[in-house]
Amino acid sequence: MANMARQFSTTTIKNHKVAVMGASGGIGQPLSLLLKLNPAVTQLNLYDIVHTPGVAADLGHIDTKSKVLGFVGQDQLKDSLVGMEIVLIPAGVPRKPGMTRQDLFNTNATIVAKIAEACAEVCPDAMLGIISNPVNSTVPIAAEIYKKAGANPDKIFGVTTLDIVRSNAFIGDLKGLDPQNVDCPVIGGHAGDTIMPIISQCTPPVEFGDEELAALTKRIQNAGTEVVLAKDGTGSATLSMAHAAAEFAKQLLKARGGEDVVIEAYVASNETEAAFFSNKLTLGADGIKQNHGYGKLTPFEEKLLEKGLPELLDQIKAGVEFAKDF
């Protein structure tokens, strides 16, 4: 993202221990690779139900300073979380053609709930970045699990960075701009109509005609499906998601090190009637320092919010109800 530093820095980093839960999967492996290449990470714990020792051995041959440990199976779940400052959760099944994110709910909800339960016990002060879909539901699930355990859910973040990355890429392509110099806010949630690109607040400012704006917005909202269809039954967005999650983790590392950073993430919120919502936040070492809200919207964007909120409310409710019965 344009407002994120592109170069790694270790000058203010104090906490270096990161865990990837679901590290053997399509997102987990490239994400683990990118984290291994980040000099701010000095210990990288990889957890999955299969294959993690092999992934850890492979990554361990890369000539960077981080120590890589592999943990496999439910018996090693808690061990993988000991001492972690940041936990990233891409665990779950991928989306296939014809599947919505909500179709993934039953399987991925259980996976996230079990990991959240372990995090609440073993590393309750860690920052959690939840990637497992449907994020609109899995983040509320984790928050409810934390509340049950008497842990503070304020450091749980839904990783919506990919929506911003895609927006920047698509706008850059349309306007002939370097996408790394584009920063388009995306608010709401992380599925379909709950993804609300706020193109009127893009940096640098860009303008589109009504039809082009509607088409661009719809492409951003449906970009995940675009990848699912292009992969023709072999998976969903993995490489772009891994990049987005690594960028997100880079900012969390800076925040844990005491540096104020501005990110966008899906968190517990009072900005709308939805109990969880994504927009710009300032993070520090202890979590969210300021919620910046979503600012002034155009009439087109107000309609996006009006259309997306009911879907978001339903998906949050589904997550909360699941957690109550877990």
Structure report:
The protein starts with 16 loop residues before the first strand and ends with a helix. The protein has helices at residues 28-36, 52-60, 77-81, 105-122, 135-149, 161-175, 210-221, 223-230, 239-256, 299-325, and strands at 17-21, 43-48, 67-72, 86-89, 127-130, 156-158, 186-188, 195-197, 261-268, 276-284, 287-291. It has one domain: Lactate dehydrogenase/glycoside hydrolase, family 4, C-terminal (L-2-Hydroxyisocaproate Dehydrogenase, Chain A, domain 2). It has a six-stranded parallel sheet, sandwiched between helices. Strands 9-10-11 form a three-stranded antiparallel sheet. By secondary structure, it is of the alpha/beta class. It is globular and about 55 Å long. The protein is built from ten helices and eleven strands. Helix 1 crosses helix 9 (239-256) and helix 4 (105-122) packs parallel to helix 5 (135-149). The longest helix has 27 residues, at 299-325. It is 42% helix and 17% strand.
State the share of residues found in helices, binned by percent. 40-55%
Q: What is the arithmetic mean of pLDDT?
A: 94
Given as residue ranges, the uncertain stretches (5+ residues, pLDDT < 50) are: 1-13
**CATH class identity:** Alpha Beta
CATH homologous superfamily placement: Lactate dehydrogenase/glycoside hydrolase, family 4, C-terminal
What is the gyration radius calculated from CA atoms? Answer: 18 Å
**Based on helices, strands and strand pairing, what is the structural class?**
alpha/beta
In total, the number of domains comes to 1
Task: State the total count of DSSP E strands.
Answer: 11
Strand order, biggest sheet? 3-2-1-4-5-6
Secondary-structure element order, N to C: EHEHEHEHEHEHEEHHHEEEH
Q: Beta-strand level of the residues, as a percent range?
A: 15-25%
Number of separate helices: 10
For this structure, the quaternary state is single chain
**Second CATH tier, the architecture:** Alpha-Beta Complex
* Intertermini distance: 36 Å
Using the alpha-carbon principal axes, give the shape.
globular
- Find the CATH topology: L-2-Hydroxyisocaproate Dehydrogenase, Chain A, domain 2
